[in-house]
Every structure is written in C-alpha cells, then in structure tokens.
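#struct-help
A.M.: can someone run this one for me? Single chain, 599 residues.
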Amino acid sequence: MDSYSLLYSSSQRTGLLSGFQRLRSQGNMCDVVLEVDGVSYPCHRALLASSSDYFWALFGEATAERLAGSISLPALTPEGLDAVLDFLYSGWLSISSPTLAVVLEAARYLQVETAVSICERFMTDGLNKDNCCCYANLAEHHALSDALEAANQTIAIEMGALVQESRDDLLRLNVRSLMAVLDADEIPGVEEVELVKLALDWLDKNGPLPLLKSNLLLSKLRFGLVAPADLSGLRHRAMATPLIRGQLTRASEYHELGPAQPIRQSKQSTLRASPDRVLLVGGGRTPDWPEQEMLAFDPRSRTFSPLSSGVPRRLRNHCAVSVGGFLFVIGGEEVSGGGDGGDGGDGGDEGARPLTAATSKHAWRYDPRFDRWEAMQPMLERRDQFTCCVVGEAIYAIGGRHTRPGDDTRTSVASVEYYDLATGAWRRGAAMPRPLYGHACAALGAGVYVSGGRSASQGGGNRGDSSREVQFWDLKGRVWEKRAPMSIGRFGHRMAAARGFIFALLGMYEPFCDIEQYDARSDHWTRLRPLLTGSFDYGVAPTPAGNLLVFGGRRWSDGRQVAARSVLEYDTKTDRWREICQLPRPLAGAECALLPLPG
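D.P.: on it. Structure tokens below:
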C-alpha cells in the first residue's frame, strides 16, 4: 500500500471567506436578497445555509423560500443583520454597547450560535455599574445563563450605588434577576429596609404578579435585618398573604429574643455580608492606654477599616469572642483618667488625672446588623488576664485574676463561669485544679484545653514561673483532666485550633519565637518552626484555609518594648511564616474575633 500525507492549510479557510466577501461586495454570483426595512442585502444562499441553522431550514427542500429570490426579515433591524452578515462572511463581529441588543437579537433569530456566544462574552467581560441591569434583562430575554448570573452578581455588589443613582434601572429589572439579587448573601452598602422598599416599588411598577410569584419574591427578603420600628411600618397589599405575614411575625419574635438571638439565627436574620472579617478589639500603642476604636481586617484584600462604633470602655487584658454574628467583649481592666475626654495618648499631659485601671466584670454585646452595643448581665466575678472560649450555646470565662477592693492586692482565681446564651445568665462551672492567670485556651471537639499561665499573683516574672501544664475540660463529664504538658512553660501566650490540631504560640517570658502543635488523638506536642523575630501581647485569628494570623504585638528594641505593625501569617500545613501586610498603626494588646460585617 502506497503511503500518503494529509496536510491542512489554514489559509485555504481564510481565503474561502475572503473570496465570498469579495463576491458579495461586487454583487457577483449572489442568488438571494435579504430585505430589512427597505434595505437589501445580496447574499449567497450556500454560505448562509452552511453558517446558520435558520437559513439551513429556510432553504430546505420542502420550503416555499427554497428558490425565492428575496427573503423579508421584518423581525430584525438593518444594523443587526448587517453585523451578523459581516460575521458570516469574514469571521469578525462588530459589536458595541449601543448595538449589542440588535446584534444579539439578529444572531439569536438567525441561530448563529457562535455570534451569540461572542455577544455573551462581550456582556460578561464588560459588566459594570452602568450597564448591569440592562445586560441582565438582555441575558434573561435570550436565555444566556452565564451572562445572566454574572450580571446578577454585579447588581448585588453595586446595589449600594444603584439604589441611589439608577433606581429606575432597578425598577425595570426582570423578575428573575430581582429574585436572584434579593437571594444574594452579599449586598454591600445597603440596609435591608432599602431592599424591602425596592421590592415593593418594583411590584407597584410591574405588578400585580401571580400570588405564588409575588410570595416567592418577597420571601427572598430578610425581615430579621429590619429594625423593629421599620418593621411595624411596612404596609403593602402584597405583604398581606399568610406566608409573608408569618415571616414578619417571626422577625418580630427574633427581635424580642434578647440574649438568645445569637443561637436562634436563621437566613432571615443573617447579615448579607462578606466572609468573616477579623475584628481587632482594644489594644493600643502602649499597654497603659488602650484604644476604643475597633479595626476590621479583610483577609481577601488584606486591608483594614475602622468601625463606626468603638468599644464602650478602654480595656486591656480583656476577652473577645463571637457567636452567631454577634461580638462579645468581656471583663478585663477598665482604664480611665489620663487622656479621657481628648485624644489622650499616654495620659501624661500636664494637669491630666492619673491613669487608673480597675478589674471589670462587665460584658458587652455588639450587633453589627444595627451597629449597636448592649450591656449584658455582668460576670459573677471580676477578671483580667483570663481566657474565654465558646462551646455549644455557652461562653466560658476561665481563671484570671482580680484586684481586691481597698488594698490593690492582685489575686489569681481558679473559678470558671459560663454565660448561658439561652437564658442570658452567668452560671458557675467546675473550678480548675488551681488558680491561673495569663493562660490560654482553645475549644476542640467537645471540650476546652487550657495551657500554661501562672498560679501565684506575686512572682518574679520569669520563665520559671510559667507553667507547662495542660488541662482539659470535658463538657460531657464536667471534670478537669490533665493532658500531656507543653515542651516549655508559657505565660501570656495564645492557643488556636486549626485543621484538627491546637497550636500554642509564643508568649511573654519564654523564648518569644517558639510554637508547638498538639494532637488530641495521640495526646502529643510537636515543636514547630520558630518565628525569626519574637513578640508577645499580639492578637491571633484563624483563616478559613486553616492558617493563623498574628496581628501586631510588642517586641524588645534597644532595651525597651515597642508596639509592632506587622501582620504575619503562619501556614499550618507547611510550617512557614510570612508577613502579609502591616497594620495602619502600631498595635499591641488587641483581642481578635471573626465576625461578618455589613458592606
């Protein structure tokens, strides 16, 4: 058998189209004329039928148009047909925002799917605040699922500007897109009451809708995010159905739950927020003068922004935890005097009152839905340098120390109490085997691990005073049990759970750089790669990927302590540290909590 070669020439295909385009421009060998609004387009029947399913069917053997000399296309415009014909003859589609609608209409009508795909890609790539509503309507009309999804996402992200600048565009939005937007988990910069008003205005302009569709639209709203005063003022005929009345009733009941709100969350009361931000609570440039301003860190953009509301008191050695989208700030030392009433700084201004720090048992709850602080029932004991963690429906406050009234004597305690979120009351728990302060804790599984710290309140402040012990609080058995000790004694350190392990980080008196990992299954600690530059009094927060973020802290420099600005990330998989960004200002003593925040 003789061998042979099969070779391909791309220029042949290009030359074929170029030849047809030349014949068309010269009017040679054209055997059909397309007519739109009095404009004629001589074409070649064979090229049209081979490029378009519409023309393939139109010129079939059993159609009246098979041999017709002219074909009228009243559903199209000259601009749209001209663009599609140029594409069929050249492979180039001329398209812009003003011509998109007519070109897409022609491409879809003539079933030129390649041109339709190009139009969809043009829409998806060019989405912005000014065209997202128009493109969403186009995509919905022509069943372009990818462009529709992208347009709906853009509308949700840009809603803050759209409700102010382009409300009419929103009121012309197709119902499918409006439902998708109102179902979005992230709509930054818009209060829920504004979305409710938008939906009701849309119904007034486009309704009435069938009852089922109207209920479906309004059920996308989150009435639990509407303030009680605004909730009672909502009046509209579409909201009189049993389904929507039931949702309004449940929203009102949610607002009346008080302390149980964090554990009674539903989609109706969940913020339309970005993934959790890291909230830095308290801390300051110096340990003596903590700040009330809170900073929010966005792990995606690695940027910081201040919250409009600050902590009700200047606190140090306090605790901060989050439950159900609420922030809890508990205990610590309330600092007053010095710079109170001004920009304050260090309390060293001439004539300023001397700084005082009183151990507190106060507890505060912050609701980001309405940017509101609320005083909770105070703890049973005053505590600072204690530790807190959340397990189930309770916040545990463990150990710490307090100042005896009248004699300024510092006393460490072994007591444990927990805040029952269901009842809003603090209750006694089983005390630790011995008093501790400056210790750390982490919740893992059905228990709490407590490590390190010091027992005696008056001590030399050296490494030898720091404990290596690890205690485990079994929530089922409600007893304290010993676990394998850490490799070194630690005080003022942090613990965090990530990827099923517990990590003990740094500390005040031991070598500042050391970290180790605890495996609860084997009850074993493993030393890990130390940080090159040690620090203490920093904030720690886990990331969704299982890494740990370390914010600021204090370091020794030229024989004195200075606050740091660095934000470090520890990769728990590869055992590596890296600096990812810097704080807006030096900060030490901040407590960290993960919290969803509105826009």
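A.M.: thanks! The CA atoms of residues 171 and 206 lie 8 Å apart.
D.P.: also worth noting: The domain at 277-595 is CATH 2.120.10.80 (Neuraminidase).
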